[in-house]
Amino acid sequence: MSNKVENSGMKIAQNTLWAFFERFGSQIVSFIVSIVLARFILPDDYGVIAIVTLFIGIANVFVTGGFSNALIQKKEVDHVDFSSVLYFGMGFSICLYLLLFFVAPYISLYFRIEELTTLLRIMGIQLIISSFNSVQRAYVSRNLMFRRFFFSTLGGISVSGAVGIVMAFLGYGVWSLMVQYILNTLIDTIVLFFTIKWRPTLAFSFKRLKILLSYGWKLLFATLLTTIYSDLYTWIIARKYNSADLAYYKKGKSFPQLLAGQVGASLDSVLFSSMSRESDNKAKLKYRLRQSIRFGSFIILPLIVGLAIVAKPFINFILTDVWADAVIYLQIACISFLVSPIGSMHIQVVKALGKSGIYLILDILKKLVGVIVLIVFINKGVIAIALAEAFANFVGLFINIIPNIIILRYNLLEQLKDLTSALLLTLIMSLSIYWMIFLPIPSLLCMFLQIIVAGVVYIGVSFLFKVKALQESIKIIKAIFGKKGNVKNEG
Question: Which residues in 453-489 are b (16+ Cβ under 10 Å) and which e?
Fold first, then answer.
């Protein structure tokens, strides 16, 4: 590899770590906030807000999906492209909000929860804010300025979390969750407005919008399918079972999401931006993908497997025994999220190459598998539904890797080789701590001992065998916090 390629790789790795800091830091703050809120808000209230965010999430896909990715992927963009997407998105989000406003009473009637009408109408305001925020985020991602996300995201979550906690303490219940949700996006948008140079101009081009739409609509449709599919589980549990079951399912799932989901999203955001710039060089694309899989699996696998092992004392300590029923859903979600980030990394190559048609076909196949499995287990209980979701995710991984076997000649043997060190290290770590659950000591003390031993064993064995992913991680951290950590093109 030439110095130019190595420097480019280091810059991408630095941005990956900044994105990781942003995602993981924000989730740590969010995690702390959720712990406090869980002590003031009942599972039923969490279930109600999950139903509200279900509809807001689907509407948000139309506002934030497709066009923002198109702005990142397009070779040449200027202020006309960004402004055109902004004005179109703002207008469309207002129309969506009005639609949501008028259908809210019918949604409330369907789920037999009267307060849903008001909650949907107020929380729907977030759609309009998100339309502006999505263009800001596209600008930051395209220009690899991921340090900006670190401050805006943490600012939004910290302030909104503090407000939510105060409201929950004062007895506002579900309304504290709603205010936290809206305020988070608003503060994120305000911070980005004052920390990046981009400003909308009085420019609009239907021609530019049409070009962006030709790429973006397929990603939008695929994202919509993904959102509807993932929310399908929420919808069915809320309708067929009850809001408490939904709360246990969602809360259990949220912890693996903190670990695997956010690490994966950090890698994805940087991968897509960097790969879009190198889409003409398949050798570089393959190198970036392999590097990301080694780095990502090294971080994700031990965290997820370790969390599954300490699930019971973890839930009891963090949320109290009121949430004990969430333990099994946490462990099942760990199985599910074990493979999701790796599959998502493969998809970034397809997106970066502009193969949005292939992306859509893959997404339809994965959702078809998921729906079939869900239909089989729909009447078997909430635990069976969660297991069905995990099984569908494993099938989805194999669907995701097919294009890169063909496009990048990244065969299964190479992929397994890139995962081997993380798999073996995780197995050694797991064996070193699993037996400790049988010790005659308090479960809380056992959990802390397991966490300490797991960290020492995993890092220690990595040093002993000079694992490449650990060496790369240390090099990246030194570069970020040393003199070489400055990214010159940020502004």
Answer: ebeebbeebbeeeebebbebbeebeebbeeeebebee
Q: For 92-149, how does the pLDDT look when each residue is reduced to its tens digit (9 = 90+)?
A: 889 989 999 999 999 888 887 888 899 999 989 988 998 888 888 888 777 766 667 6
Side-chain-side CA neighbours of residue 174 (13 Å): 21
The pLDDT of residue 31: 67
CA distance 270 to 8: 12
- Its pTM stands at 0.66
**350, 289 contact by CB (below 8 A):** no
Q: Is the dihedral of CA 11, 17, 21, 27 positive or negative?
A: positive
Following DSSP, what letter does each residue of 180-235 receive, concatenated?
Answer: HHHHHHHHHHHHHHHHS-----S---HHHHHHHHHHHHHHHHHHHHHHHHHHHHHH
Residues in the chain: 491
Dist. CA 286–CA 282, nearest whole Å? 6
The answer on pLDDT for 87 being more than 80 is yes
Q: Which of 292, 381, 380, 397 minimizes the C-alpha distance to 335?
A: 397
Rg of the chain's alpha carbons, rounded to an integer? 22
Instruction: Report how many helices (DSSP H) and strands (DSSP E) the chain contains, helices first.
Output: 20, 0
DSSP structural state of residue 171: T
Of 3, 1, 18, 2, nearest to 476 (Cα)? 18
Q: Which two tokens stand for residue 433?
A: 């701590």
Q: What does the pLDDT read at residue 429?
A: 94
